[in-house]
């Protein structure tokens, strides 16, 4: 893969010349905290009944608001090497210190490049000579603050990237960061090192927690600095440029965190498409989506399918227990993993599970956000699944939903269709549930596509699945049947789509028949819109988002083709071509949109919503009936006992 033309290289000479300054900072700096307060570790009382002395507070008028905090020596090398019992530094401690030195040097080099690009370097020289013009003092201050934010974010970004390989399952909660200073870049770094030292004092009791504390601190700094940078002036030069550190394979793209482009080593059992019996539409769309992901262009950071329409960013698979949702996940993950292995692309698969629900306030949301960020990383092909989402994401207004479940719901809603959601086309998220009616309505509607996982349906399906699961270790004759002939995907899918020419759910069928009787055949945009309005009158949850999901599904149907297998097997034919070539090749395969496609997709989507609503209402009614029955029985027994 070639590098993008807008990358500016930070050479090794640019970085290594700052090593001495970086080491000096790690050896020791004095810093007086401006915003944060020192975090004190619990200390034993020096004598019974006498506590530690309170901090001195000046009574001199005019000095009351002046900080009386003393400058504190920050010696990170000593702090890191003092973790644990061993008097000699461990390999992990050495890696952390080398990572911090490298990150500081990269940050200083990026700050230097920013200064040169914005004219700040000249203003610094004029300031040393006392010659900064009065008219430019405000500009000088703004540029210093902008450089401080850029350097601070780059330091945290590089630290997180360089130490990612040292991370383990251990995590720590350090709380928020406070000492974010923007007077100048050097003071910003001193403040960052001071607060990191404070956190290491409290949390770094062994090597695993040392790494976890440094990474947690870097994540918190990036989040807070990026938030501050949204309203800060003079940052265009940093936001618009990309700095490349070739030796570390690190690209700094403004205030976007960089992630090490490493894939997840999967240990799941993969399933081949012919091992998925039934579920024709779901299987077909999963196979298409797996190949769509591979069209992603790592240089342009965009997928032609995302630009042309037809890319599925989020989908929901629902069906009764035992119909094959897990098998579908195994099939799709296996396909993408195999394609990525052939092309040499990093593949990352993650599942959000009940382990991510935490009793600690805010931690569940953080876990969900980390899951999203890992999958959407633009440097990898990502596949994220949320199995049994009805158990993970709480339904707002439901008294049974925990605070952690509601946090996860909020994060997923914002990430899947929030104001800041950017669909690059490098990843997809699948939500699966046996009880989709228990999923929050707004979250469920953020699923752009619906996969009805209905399992084996026909007689041939049941013969096929029996033959598949029985294996070959028997002598029972097959009989009058051709194994898997009914699973021929194109024929089965065509029949499945045609089956949606009319609605399946009774409530929707009544709407369809009434509208068709009033206005005739649904063959124009106006008539189709009238049908949609009729659906909305029958179900108030059928909103504009539903229309968007339907039109997206129609665009997917326009892309109703599979990229040829040879394109996946021989990457030079498609995968390694330039973005414009890929886009042109895809456009040649695109099909025209027809009225039948639109009607079928309206019915498919609306059927699922009516199915969820009917189930939800029926469950609620059944629960109320049961409660009334229990009350009546309890009352009867009480009166019998009393009388």
From TrEMBL:
Which InterPro entries does this chain map to? ATPase_AAA_core, P-loop_NTPase
| Location of the ATPase AAA-type core domain | 319-452
Q: Where are the transmembrane segments?
A: none
This chain belongs to the protein called SpoVK/Ycf46/Vps4 family AAA+-type ATPase
Q: Which organism is it from?
A: Litoreibacter halocynthiae
GO-annotated molecular function: ATP binding; ATP hydrolysis activity
């Amino acid at each position: 893969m070639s590098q993008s033309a807008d990358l500016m290289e930070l050479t090794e000479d640019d970085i290594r010349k700052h090593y001495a300054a970086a080491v000096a900072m790690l050896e020791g700096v004095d810093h007086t905290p401006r915003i944060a307060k020192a975090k004190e570790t619990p200390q034993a009382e020096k004598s019974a009944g006498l506590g530690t002395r309170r901090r001195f507070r000046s009574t001199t008028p005019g000095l009351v608001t002046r900080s009386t905090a003393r400058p504190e020596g920050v010696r990170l090398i000593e702090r890191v090497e003092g973790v644990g019992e061993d008097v000699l530094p461990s390999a992990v401690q050495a890696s952390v210190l080398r990572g911090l030195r490298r990150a500081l040097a990269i940050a200083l080099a990026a700050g230097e490049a920013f200064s040169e690009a914005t004219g700040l370097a000249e203003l610094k020289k004029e300031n040393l000579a006392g010659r900064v013009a009065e008219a430019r003092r405000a500009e000088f201050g703004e540029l210093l603050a902008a450089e401080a934010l850029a350097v601070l974010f780059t330091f945290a970004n590089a630290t997180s990237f360089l130490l990612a390989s040292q991370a383990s399952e251990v995590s720590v909660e350090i709380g928020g960061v406070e000492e974010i200073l923007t007077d100048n870049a050097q003071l910003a770094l001193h403040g960052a090192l001071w607060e990191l030292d404070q956190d290491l004092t409290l949390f770094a009791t062994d090597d695993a927690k040392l790494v976890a504390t440094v990474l947690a601190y870097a994540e918190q700094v990036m989040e807070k600095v990026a938030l501050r940078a949204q309203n800060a002036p003079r940052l265009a030069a940093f936001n618009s440029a990309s700095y490349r550190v070739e030796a570390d394979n690190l690209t700094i793209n403004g205030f976007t965190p960089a992630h090490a482009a490493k894939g997840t080593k999967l240990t799941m059992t993969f399933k081949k498409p012919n091992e998925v019996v039934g579920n024709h539409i779901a299987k077909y769309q999963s196979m298409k989506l797996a190949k769509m992901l591979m069209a992603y262009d790592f240089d342009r950071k965009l997928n032609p399918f995302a630009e042309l329409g037809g890319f599925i960013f989020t989908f929901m698979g629902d069906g009764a227990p035992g119909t094959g949702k897990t098998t579908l996940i195994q099939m799709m993950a296996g396909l993408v993993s195999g394609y990525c292995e052939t092309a040499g692309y990093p593949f990352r698969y993650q599942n959000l599970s009940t382990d991510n629900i935490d009793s600690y306030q805010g931690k569940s949301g953080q876990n969900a956000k980390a899951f999203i960020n890992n999958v959407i990383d633009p440097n990898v092909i990502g596949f994220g699944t949320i199995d049994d989402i009805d158990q993970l994401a709480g339904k707002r207004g439901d008294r049974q939903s925990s605070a952690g479940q509601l946090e996860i719901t909020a994060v997923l809603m914002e990430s899947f269709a929030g104001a800041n959601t950017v669909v690059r086309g490098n990843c997809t998220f699948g939500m699966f549930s046996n009880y989709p009616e228990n999923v929050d309505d707004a979250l469920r509607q953020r699923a752009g596509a619906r996969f009805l996982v209905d399992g084996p349906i026909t007689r041939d399906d049941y013969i096929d699945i029996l033959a598949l699961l029985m294996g070959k270790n028997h002598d029972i004759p097959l009989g009058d049947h051709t194994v898997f002939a009914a699973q021929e995907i194109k024929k089965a899918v065509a029949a499945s789509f045609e089956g949606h020419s009319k609605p399946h759910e009774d409530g929707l069928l009544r709407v369809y028949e009434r509208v068709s009787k009033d206005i005739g055949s649904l063959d124009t945009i106006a008539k189709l819109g009238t049908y949609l309005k009729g659906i909305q009158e029958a179900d108030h949850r059928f909103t504009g988002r539903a229309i968007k999901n339907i039109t997206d599904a129609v665009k997917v149907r326009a892309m109703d083709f599979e990229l040829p297998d040879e394109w996946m097997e021989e990457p030079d034919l498609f995968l390694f071509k330039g973005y414009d070539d890929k886009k042109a090749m895809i456009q040649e395969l695109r099909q025209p949109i027809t009225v039948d496609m639109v009607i079928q997709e309206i019915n498919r989507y609306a059927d699922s919503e009516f199915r969820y609503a009917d189930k939800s209402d029926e469950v609620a009614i059944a629960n109320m009936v049961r409660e009334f029955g229990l009350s009546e029985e309890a009352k009867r027994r009480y009166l019998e006992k009393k009388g």
